Structure formats: C-alpha cells, structure tokens
C-alpha cells in the first residue's frame, strides 16, 4: 500500500461504540430503552413514501429550515443562532475544524466524551486533557489554568460523560470570564433533559450572554433518535455561519428531519419517560452504593463506577452472569459506565454487581 495517510492519523484510536449482543440487555450507549413513539414511526413512513415533496428519492432540505425553526422555538432563541448536524458529534468535529489546526490546542476534562481527543487530533491540533477532581467532577480552575496562547477551544461537558457530574452556573461563569474571549467554549449538554440539579449551568443562556460560548444538544438520547443522527448547536450567528461552511452537505437526512420535528412536538409523552429514568437512576445509585461501590452523583441517564483497571473484569462479569452489556473504559483513569435502562434491566445489572467478587 503506497497511499500516504496524514501523520495526524498516526496512533489515533478509532471510536469504539458500545457493543450490541443478540439476546443481551444493552446498557452501554446511553440510549432510552422505550420503543420509538408511534407518531414518530408513522411520520418517518409517510415521509419515506412522499414522492411529491421530499420522498427519499429527493435530497433533503440542506438547512433543515422547519427543524431549525422548531428548535429555535424550543430553546427560545432566534433562528440565526441555531444549526443542526448529523448528531452532535459531527458538530463537535465541525467546531474544532472552524478554529483549530496544526499545533493548536484543545482543552477538556478527562475523563470526558471519548470523541473529543479524536475530533481534535484529526485536525492536527493537540488534546490537552485535564484530570477530573477526586470526586469525579470537571476541575474548572485547572481547565482555565491549562489555557495557553495556542488554545483555540475548550469542551465543557455537563452532565459529564462518563462521570455524570454537572457544572454549576457560578463556576462556569467564573471560568468563562477568566479565559481569553477568543477561545471557543463548547458546553456539551447531550444529557441535559435528565439533569434535575437546580444549580446546573444552562448553556443556551450562557451562549446568549457570551459570544464565544456555544452549546451543543442532541436528539439521540432524550428524544430517542440515536439511530437517525440529529444534534444542534446554539451559538453566535458568526459561529453558525462558520459551522455551515465546514458541514457535509445534506448531513441531516429527510427522515431524520421529519422524525426530529415529530419527537420535539411530543414533549408530553417524553417527559414522563425522562422522569422515570431519573427515578431509576437514583434507585440504581443507592443500590450500587449499598452494595459497596463508589458512585458519583449522576445527573445523566447513566452512572459511573470508577473501577480503574478492574473495569474490564466487571463488564465481563455482567455479561457472563446476567447477559448485561455495560461500557468499560479499562485504563488507569477508567471505569464502567452503566446506562439506566428499564427497571427489570437495571435489576439484572444490580444482580450482577452484587455478585461481583471483589
Ligand atoms: N456529546 C456527548 C457528551 C455524548 O455523550 C454524545 C454521545 N455519546 C455526543 C455528544 C454525541 O451524540 P450524538 O452524535 O448522537 O448527537
């Protein structure tokens, strides 16, 4: 093979998704376990066959005009401040692309979302990974200290994947005001709908107040559309314009646009599901603590067991004893991330956790 790949790809890990095993309970990818809402399935079927407007023989609306308007209304922001992407992970990549390149730095906590180092390195920029505190929270003072003249972007994930901990408004405001205002600060709120902490930062409000702050949200988790890939960013219109420049054309397909519009209109059906996830999260947290595990307080739809290098053994035990797939990050800063599923699924995981020989 003589093709020359860019050196930025050397040693770059491929993103490792949560595994699906036939017949097993999957608590590995932070999805909701309820089936698709019937009106969403219906809207997708109708749109697929609608040859007069936007059937799948036609390209989708490139700017997703209706969806952008609905999202703008949902977050109570002008539509010029909204942009959609093929999942919020695509927007993470676009955000790095618009500000960083060879030799630049991108700062984020660690652990945090596994895609941050990948989307950083593919641009040629260097990830600067700042350890979380002893209680598994992002260390905002250390994040601010890590900024150098090469820093172009900072990811702040709240609730943080995988630790579940949140960033509070006062500490995030302090960070934003300490950091140079030409650094793009990305508040990633993929799990926002499960966050019941009244002190949690609100990325949309902060983005409205500070032009270098962007917030990212997704329809993959709370809106149950992980398979269709829709995420959005709320940002200053100049950032929205830059994000559109680097977007792959038609990245949000027509079925995804229709499904997202329908799911957004289904707040009354979805909100009880989110409340059920929160109740199960709190039950699972208490049960795991009772069984002797350290469990940071989570505001997401998953919990984190900071088991370090023992993470792989725990995940294997869950799979072999109860056919439950959890997500292991088996290294020194690692642990196991367990998605909150239906009560019976969580019970199977708890059964495995209680029988884990430690
Ligand atoms: N941000 C965070 C913190 C996540 O955990 C995820 C999904 N694992 C994403 C962004 C991306 O989600 P999606 O691309 O499905 O919108």
Automatic annotation (TrEMBL):
- Name all Aminotransferase class I/classII large domain ranges: 25-351
What's the superkingdom here?
Bacteria
EC number assigned by the record: 2.6.1.57
- Give the cofactors, semicolon-separated: pyridoxal 5'-phosphate
Gene3D superfamilies listed in its UniProt record? Aspartate Aminotransferase, domain 1, Type I PLP-dependent aspartate aminotransferase-like (Major domain)
What are the UniProt keywords, alphabetically?
A: Aminotransferase, Pyridoxal phosphate, Transferase
The entry lists its GO molecular-function terms as: aromatic-amino-acid transaminase activity; histidinol-phosphate transaminase activity; pyridoxal phosphate binding
- NCBIfam families assigned to the protein according to its UniProt record, in alphabetical order: hisC, PRK03321.1
- Similarity-based family: Belongs to the class-II pyridoxal-phosphate-dependent aminotransferase family.
Name recorded for this polypeptide = Aromatic amino acid aminotransferase
| Taxonomic placement | Bacteria, Bacillati, Actinomycetota, Actinomycetes, Nakamurellales
Q: Which gene encodes it?
A: hisC
């Amino acid at each position: 093979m003589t093709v020359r790949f860019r050196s930025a790809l050397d040693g770059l890990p491929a993103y490792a998704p949560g595994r699906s095993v036939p017949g097993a309970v999957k608590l590995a990818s932070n999805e909701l376990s309820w089936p698709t809402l019937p009106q969403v399935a219906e809207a997708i079927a109708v749109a697929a066959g609608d040859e007069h407007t936007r059937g799948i023989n036609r390209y989708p609306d490139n700017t997703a005009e209706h969806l952008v308007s609905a999202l703008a209304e949902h977050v109570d922001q002008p539509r010029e401040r909204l942009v959609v992407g093929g999942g919020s992970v695509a927007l993470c990549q676009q955000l790095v692309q618009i500000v960083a390149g060879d030799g630049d730095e991108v700062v984020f906590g660690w652990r945090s979302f596994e895609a941050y180092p990948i989307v950083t390195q593919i641009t040629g920029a260097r990830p600067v990974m700042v350890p979380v505190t002893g209680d598994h929270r992002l260390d905002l003072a250390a994040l601010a200290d890590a900024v150098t003249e090469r820093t172009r972007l900072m990811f702040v994930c709240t609730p943080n994947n995988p630790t579940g901990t949140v960033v509070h408004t006062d500490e995030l405001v302090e960070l934003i005001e300490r950091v140079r205002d030409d650094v793009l600060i990305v508040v990633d709120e993929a799990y926002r709908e499960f966050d019941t902490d009244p002190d949690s930062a609100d990325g949309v409000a902060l983005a409205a107040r500070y032009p270098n702050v962007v917030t990212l949200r997704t329809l993959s988790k709370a809106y149950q559309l992980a398979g269709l890939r829709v995420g959005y960013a709320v940002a200053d219109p100049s950032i929205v314009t830059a994000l559109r420049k680097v977007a792959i054309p038609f990245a949000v397909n027509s079925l995804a646009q229709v499904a997202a519009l329908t799911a957004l209109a289904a707040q009354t059906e979805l909100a009880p599901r989110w409340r059920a996830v929160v109740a199960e999260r709190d039950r699972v947290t208490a049960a795991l603590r009772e069984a002797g595990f350290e469990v940071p307080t989570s505001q997401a739809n998953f919990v984190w067991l900071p088991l370090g290098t023992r993470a792989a053994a725990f995940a294997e035990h869950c799979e072999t004893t109860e056919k439950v797939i959890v997500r292991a990050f088996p290294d020194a800063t690692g642990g196991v991330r367990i998605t909150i599923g239906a009560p019976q699924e969580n019970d199977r995981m708890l059964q495995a956790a209680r029988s884990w020989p430690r």
